[in-house]
Amino acid sequence: MIDSFGRNIDYLRISLCDRCNMRCLYCMKEEGITKFRHEDILPFEKIEMIVKALAKLGIKKVRLTGGEPLLRSDVEKLCVMLKKIEGIKELCLTTNGYLLKDKAKTLKEAGVDRINISLDSLDKDKYFKITRGADLETVLDAIKEAKKYFKIKINTVLLKGFNDGEIDDFIAFAKDNQVDVRFIELMPIGVARDFKDCLLDPQKVLDQNSLLEKTELIEGVAKIYKIKDSSAKIGAISALSHSFCEKCDRLRLTSDGYLKTCLFAKKEFDLKGLRENELESALKKIISLKPASKNSDEVTKRDMNEIGG
User: Measuring CA to CA, which residue among 4, 2, 1 is closest to residue 290?
Assistant: First the structure.
């Protein structure tokens, strides 16, 4: 579906839960979260109904996120349901990887096409610190297992003074393991607003790296760099420093049933109470209200675990 600014909206990100088994510093408060009530979380059947309506309007790609999506019971069942919907061409999942090792094969069998794994450090002590207690080896083992079934992308939020000294290590990791790495600019949303001093433009940083070759390639919203003597690729996603609002093709469905047309926006649209025969017309109107760009004066009050990464 084409929105009011000529953008083709064909990508939906679905947050399956607000819960996570990590407490990453820039994502969640140290004391954790005030969990949504069970009855406030969208059931699979409602998610399926919404995706069917959006598929009729042109949504082709769906990504499952969280919190941590693998904490949602029977997530594979939902994957099967969504992959069967006419018009959905690609089903992806973003995870912190902690529960992935035992689920990789069943996720593939359930129809998941691609998996992204969030990984902000290859140093076990730094990883423990930023996740507030997680074990790096558990995730590295999961990556090895998941590679049997998927082409893996690593998502790394680039933080000044924390992991900007590990870029060469991540390039070596990508080369040795034949995985792609995306360095992502921190989004100052929720508790991440307290980390503004850590903001770095990944594109500017990677432009100066001697191990990489610049290209003219763009994949989604990532500027792509080649690693010398490797087919693995490095990407830079700089949503603040190099805004791609004019090309934004996505919607976000929160786990408690609100549709967001912009990650940053405070404005949300409640879909929970809509009947199946009401959804299509409501969604058309909502998409027509997608803003031209983010408005820094009206930023969402939600933390990222509520919106979905």
Answer: 4
**pLDDT, tens digit, for every residue of 85-99?**
999 999 999 999 999
4 inside domain: no
Which of 106, 101, 92, 103 has its CA nearest to residue 145?
101
- pLDDT band, residue 33 (cuts 50/70/90): low
Q: How much is the pTM? A: 0.95
Percent of the chain's residues with pLDDT above 90? 83
DSSP 79-93: HHHHHTSTT--EEEE
Q: Which domain holds residue 133?
A: 11-307
Q: Give the CATH number of the domain where residue 212 resides.
A: 3.20.20.70
Helix, coil or strand: residue 38? helix
Give me the residues paired with residue 115 across strands. Answer: 93, 152
Query: How many structural domains compose the chain?
Result: 1
Q: Token match 């191990």: residue?
A: 211
What is the Cα–Cα distance from 290 to 285, expressed in whole angstroms? 9
249 lies in some domain:
yes
Strand pairing class (258-260; 250-253): antiparallel
In a domain, residue 151? The reply is yes
How much is the pLDDT for 34? 64
**pLDDT digit string, tens, across residues 135-145:** 999 999 999 99
Kindly list the strands in the beta sheet with 152-158, ordered across the sheet, starting from the edge strand earlier in the chain.
212-219, 222-227, 233-237, 180-185, 152-158, 114-118, 90-95, 61-65, 11-15, 250-253, 258-260, 269-270
- Residue 245 domain flag: yes
Task: Compute the distance between CA of residue 25 and CA of residue 195 in angstroms, rounded to an integer.
Answer: 9
Over the stretch 215-227, which tens digit does the pLDDT of each residue have? 999 999 999 999 9
